[in-house]
Amino acid sequence: MGPMRFSLALLTAALLVACSPTPASRPAEAAPRAPGGFPLPDRPAAGIVAPEWSTGPDRDAADESGQLIRGLEIAPGMHVADIGAGSGYHTLRLSPAVGPTGVVYAEDIVEAYISGLRREAQRRKLTNVRIVVGTADDPKLPAKTIDRAVLVHMYHEVENPYALLWNLASALKPGARVGVIDLDRAVSSHGMAPAQLKCEFEAVGYRQVSSAPMAGGVGYLAIFEAPVKRPKPTDIKACKAS
User: What are phi and psi of 116, to 5 degrees?
Assistant: First the structure.
């Protein structure tokens, strides 16, 4: 090959390299999304291991339900949703708090747990308890009826938190509040970092009202106000795991 042809070959090769897209210039791949367009969380979910988080005496000693009721200002006549009610530890204590004119919706996705609670509520003649079998991403509550919702030691088990919170919002009245009790530790140890919780709720339009440790070592209580307007599922951005 003569000098001229060699120079042209080098020039052509250089142009091809210059025109090839670099890794930085290639469009980023879209983040995976769940059915309905909701983002998948950038964190694992803990497995459901039992119908209750801890023994009753431990929680009674800490007055966990009392702290929850006072923190959320739950009053007679309110409609309260116990999401992930399990064996009904809080449902059975929320029932007298809302009184005969109020309603407690005891929701869970494990029908065996909720069936046991139904029998216990009937045995105690708690006529203000309604049993609801939901799904992993939708609590299946009646629209715009809930004054307060509680998620106690279970949020870290939710596989698609954005879908669950979005669907829960449709059941909340304007100004309704949601209380979450969890432990400030890794999801793998059945807990949830408060900053991660706040980010995920705010991604769906909720506003954090407060977050503080509870007495008795039962975790922290974070309180959120219902979204004024829900974002489109495809507009929700997943939070980076903390």
Answer: -65, -40
Question: pLDDT by residue (tens digit) across 187-231?
Answer: 989 999 999 999 999 999 999 999 999 999 999 999 999 999 999
What is the rounded CA–CA span in Å between residue 208 and residue 225?
Answer: 6
CB 236, CB 162: distance < 8 Å: yes
4 within some domain: no
Structural domains counted in the chain: 1
CATH number at residue 199: 3.40.50.150
What dihedral angle (degrees, nearest 10) is formed by the CA atoms of 161, 163, 164, 170?
Answer: 140
Domain that holds residue 165: 49-235
Three-state DSSP state, 13: helix
**Structure confidence by residue, pLDDT tens digits, 31-62:** 678 889 999 999 999 886 654 455 556 889 99
Q: Does residue 177 form part of some domain?
A: yes
User: pTM, whole model, 2 decimals?
Assistant: 0.84
Query: What's the CA gap between 46 and 40, in Å, rounded?
Result: 15
**Closest-CA residue to 33 (of 160, 199, 206):** 160
Encoded amino acid at 186, one letter: A
Chain centroid to Cα 103, Å, comes to 22
In a domain, 40, yes or no: no
Q: Where are the beta strands (DSSP E) in 71-167?
A: 79-83, 103-108, 129-133, 146-152
